[in-house]
Amino acid sequence: MPTQREGRLLRSAEKTPRISIVIPVLNEAPTLAHHLLQLQPLRAQGVEVIVVDGESCDDSVRVAKPLADRVLSSPAGRALQMNLGAQQACAPMLLFLHADTRLPTGAVKEITQALNSYAWGRFDIKLSGRSGWLPVVSWMMNQRSRLTHIATGDQGMFMRASAFKEVGGFPEQPLMEDIELSKRLKKRSPPACLRTQVISSGRRWDEFGAWKTIRLMWRLRYRYWRGVSATQLVKEYHDAR
């Protein structure tokens, strides 16, 4: 029979989630319930779901409250929102998930296994939408990530909470925060590049045009590599769109 102290420790361990999923949200009310409902089986398995709202003007907070373990409020900015969520997370593993990205079956098991050997990782991505170019875009994103060890936020970046803390989290900049975090993390270890796919919305490619979006994103990435500030690049991004 366990002692009283051992019993308390066991109960505490049972309440500690295995993974905390952090979801930054900004005006996602029309589709947020659909995506959060898909995470409810994971909550039943001991996964913590944290939604961080960035001052939405719609009903995102109201929609999220019954479907998440925590709903936090933050100034708008994906990096700010994700950092706040990570600070409040209880689990030893973190998964940063965009509100329009769907996890594959068995994602928790794959993340857990990957983080036994790696400090961080990401999934392959499959973009869903109308454009016939989206399979090509998805393939290009996955190949580029595999070659450069740089992940994008819509690939479902995951990591040990200790590694996230050690590198200082996401840099609080308005664009390319996922690239900068990847650069920091890959100094600790290469990423686990899982071939299992998350499914992410291709709405920006559908709305703006596939090749226009590809050219825009590659131009912004090149300019960031050349040292142009994220503040300048986010202005160019909004002007182009």
UniProtKB/TrEMBL annotation:
Tell whether Hydrolase is among the UniProt keywords.
Answer: no
Q: Does the keyword Glycosyltransferase apply?
A: yes
Q: Pfam families from the entry?
A: Glycos_transf_2
- UniProt KW keywords: Cell membrane, Glycosyltransferase, Membrane, Transferase
Where does the record place it? Cell membrane
Q: NCBIfam families from the xrefs?
A: glyco_like_mftF
* Full protein name: TIGR04283 family arsenosugar biosynthesis glycosyltransferase
* Organism, scientific name: Vreelandella neptunia
